[in-house]
Inverse folding.
């Protein structure tokens, strides 16, 4: 049983020697413990219960590290789990690569690791392998985390852009923009107070239910960086169809609008970390909406648009005043407009 | 240009107001607009209140169009003439 | 959101749109706005689609970032390279390219450049960092100038010794006069900037109908405000009238905000100013008065003389004068995009090219 370690991360924690092993045992093995990880081999040897292997990776560099509704640890697990889930996979295993700055408080690191443990448990995944590096102070903004994820999928699951048809319906599983709005608020650059919390959560229970019960489910995606607008544009890029969105139907919290309007942000471009966009056959729209709304965190799920013939490859937005314009993907980082 | 949004004043301390829009609370410096009370709506630009919103004028602007139908275009003309 | 959502009412928008069509003369009309906020709102709400085909909207030089010439930017970059300085700026300025660099690039090379939402934050930075010299980049028209004036007066009251402003402030009326005098592009009506007017009062635009017989409407920023302003202008044209009509009466008075005007007058004096794309316009800039020279970064830093070098292929100037549209520029969409901007019109999110790229590229 390892003694609890405290103090700060030093270069030797990343050198592979005694301090590294102390860190691994007293934090990572202690909190992530599972058969594959506990053996501490160079690679994890895993059971494969499915037909197709689904594999993804994501690096997490969020700032600040702790924000209302989550932290970098929770985000790194949930983000990767969600990438697997929206592809129709059952998420199983994660790797965890950490790059930590010299001087980082071990207590803070422990909080992040506990967060990851809780997130992994709620998602039903195991963290089976990892790596730790230590870099000089200032080189990693505290800590960067990479998680790669493996899931499995039944061959019968068919989700692809090719299956999309004119007349299909587009839905979102809830409020748009909460995560990035929470980050903007947490950066405390604007001296505001707001009751905005990140929506950081796993979506795999929702995606699994949709796969099981909606036969003409065409595609799903989680609208993270670049927000809903960017994800929708990814759906239509170079395709022979477009999508029309009704701006008034897109659910956005009043508080997120209250943050966006004075600062010049557009909620359609703000990242989400616990939501999905789905395209389904018209006949299944009502049932899909009911399934989404049956999850408490998806009570604001809504039908927001449909797949159209023209303009091809574009998103047509029907604005709140009833006019039409094109909705492009995010071209650059949103900065506050002042003058 | 100049991004500025109407917000409701909910608190005033010295020359700084706390003003709210959509449930989000902003700080607004009142140096350019000192005669403000709680409940007033202020137009806030880059952290400063630049003008007080005239609620009656706002409602009037909307009323003209809200009441208008195809046949009321003439009445709108008369109203605008009278106001001048 | 109160007093915002009501002015985004689709029924009202439809009524105004149909009224405009009903009274629209047969000839082609061009209406210019000179405010980045109007540029963005027009694009964001698809206003052009609600107007008759023969009514053209032109975006004029209404984006303060876009009209800032390279010598100001180069001076800002120079200051950022001096040891012990913090350059505080509005967000839009960070990526604007000068002759050779941008604040973003200087920041990546180690300069201390920080984004503020408000100029008062820059003063707070100075007070929190007494060993550093904090310089705020004063960009903006009459809406922003009184804020900067107020902050300088507060700095004086609080005896802050390490705070200064690099003033690039400009004022609208003379620029609008220059556009009309040039006769380069037909302007049949002006949508006048609503928040500039909240400070200056709507009366400052009276010279436009008086001397040029061009109708004006002082407009708010919500879509029905802009539509109503266009309606008022078209109605004046159809009746052969020209005057300044106040659409944004909930926020603008004819005489303006007297206290704000007094502050501007205390701290600043008019000077000639170079507008990117328009050249030098007399009395269109604001210079910090000699009695406040200890807050004037131009005087505090030994800025070397800077020759203004503009990219010859960049059409920002002609675009801002309404002579060209963004697609007419050779660089638009290829060598000049929001991710790799060449000209200021593309960098600033309120610039005509950025708005066109974001909202209209797909058309």
């Amino acid at each position: 049983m390892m003694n609890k370690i405290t103090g700060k991360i030093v270069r030797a924690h990343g050198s592979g020697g005694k301090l590294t092993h102390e860190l691994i045992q007293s934090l990572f093995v202690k909190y992530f413990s599972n058969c594959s990880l506990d053996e501490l081999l160079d690679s994890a040897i895993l059971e494969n219960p499915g037909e197709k292997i689904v594999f993804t990776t994501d690096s997490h560099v969020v700032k600040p590290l702790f924000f209302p509704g989550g932290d970098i640890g929770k985000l790194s697990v949930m983000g990767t789990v969600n990438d697997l889930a929206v592809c129709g996979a059952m998420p199983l295993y994660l790797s965890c690569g950490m790059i930590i700055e010299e001087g980082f408080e071990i207590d803070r690191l422990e909080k992040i690791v506990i967060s990851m443990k809780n997130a992994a448990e709620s998602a039903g995944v195991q963290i089976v392998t990892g790596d730790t590096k230590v870099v000089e102070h200032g080189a990693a903004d505290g800590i960067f985390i990479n998680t790669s994820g493996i899931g499995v999928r039944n061959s019968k699951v068919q989700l692809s852009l090719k299956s999309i048809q004119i007349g299909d319906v587009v839905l979102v599983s809830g409020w748009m923009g909460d995560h990035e709005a929470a980050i903007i608020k947490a950066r405390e650059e604007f001296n505001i107070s707001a009751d905005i919390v990140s929506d950081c959560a796993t979506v795999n229970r929702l995606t699994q239910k949709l796969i099981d019960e909606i036969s003409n489910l065409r595609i799903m995606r989680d609208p993270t960086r670049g927000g809903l607008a960017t994800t929708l544009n990814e759906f239509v890029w170079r395709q022979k169809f477009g999508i029309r969105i009704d701006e008034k139907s897109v659910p956005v919290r009043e508080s997120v609008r209250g943050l966006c309007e004075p600062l010049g942000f557009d909620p359609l471009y703000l990242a989400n970390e616990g939501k999905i966009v789905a395209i389904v056959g018209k006949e299944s729209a009502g049932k899909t909406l009911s399934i989404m709304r049956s999850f408490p965190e998806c009570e604001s799920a809504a039908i927001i648009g449909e797949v159209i013939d023209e303009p091809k490859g574009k998103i047509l937005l029907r604005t709140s005043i009833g006019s039409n314009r094109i909705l492009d993907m995010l071209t650059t980082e949103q900065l506050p407009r002042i003058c | 240009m100049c991004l500025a949004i109407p917000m409701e004043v909910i608190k005033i301390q010295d020359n700084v107001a706390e003003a709210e829009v959509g449930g989000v609370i902003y700080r607004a410096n009142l140096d350019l607009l000192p005669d403000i009370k709680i409940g007033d709506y202020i137009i806030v630009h880059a952290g400063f209140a630049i003008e007080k919103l005239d609620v009656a004028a706002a409602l009037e602007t909307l009323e003209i169009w809200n009441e208008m139908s195809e046949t009321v275009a003439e009445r709108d003309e008369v109203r605008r003439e009278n106001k001048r | 959101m109160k007093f915002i959502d009501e002015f985004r009412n689709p029924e009202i928008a439809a009524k105004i749109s149909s009224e405009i069509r009903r009274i629209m003369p047969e000839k082609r009309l061009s209406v210019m706005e000179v405010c980045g906020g109007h540029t963005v709102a027009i694009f964001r709400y698809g206003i052009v689609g609600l107007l008759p085909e023969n009514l053209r909207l032109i975006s004029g030089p209404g984006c303060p970032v876009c009209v800032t010439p390279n010598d100001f930017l180069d001076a800002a970059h120079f200051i950022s390279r001096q040891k012990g300085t913090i350059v505080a700026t509005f967000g839009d300025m960070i990526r604007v390219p000068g002759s050779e660099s941008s604040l973003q690039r200087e920041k990546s090379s180690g300069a201390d450049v920080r984004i503020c939402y408000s100029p008062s934050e820059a003063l707070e930075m100075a007070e929190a960092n007494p060993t550093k010299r904090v310089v705020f980049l004063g960009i903006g028209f009459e809406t922003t100038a009184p804020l900067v004036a107020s902050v300088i007066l507060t700095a004086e009251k609080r005896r802050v010794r390490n705070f200064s402003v690099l003033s690039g402030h400009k004022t609208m009326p003379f620029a609008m006069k220059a556009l009309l005098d040039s006769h380069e592009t037909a302007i049949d009506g002006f949508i006048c900037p609503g928040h500039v007017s909240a400070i200056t009062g709507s009366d400052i635009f009276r010279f436009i109908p008086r001397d040029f017989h061009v109708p004006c409407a002082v407009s708010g920023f919500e879509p029905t405000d802009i539509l109503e302003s266009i309606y008022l202008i078209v109605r004046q044209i159809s009746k052969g009238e020209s005057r300044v009509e106040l659409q944004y009466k909930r926020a603008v008075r004819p005489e303006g905000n007297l206290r704000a005007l007094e502050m501007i007058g205390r701290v600043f004096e008019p000077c000639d100013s170079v507008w990117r794309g328009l050249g030098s316009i007399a009395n269109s800039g604001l210079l910090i008065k000699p009695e406040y020279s200890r807050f004037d970064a131009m005087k505090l830093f030994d800025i070397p003389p800077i020759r203004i070098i503009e990219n010859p292929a960049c059409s920002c100037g002609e675009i801002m004068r309404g002579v060209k549209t963004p697609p007419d520029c050779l660089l638009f969409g290829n060598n000049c995009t929001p991710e790799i901007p060449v000209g200021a019109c593309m960098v600033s999110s309120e610039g005509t090219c950025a708005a066109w790229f974001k909202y209209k590229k797909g058309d």
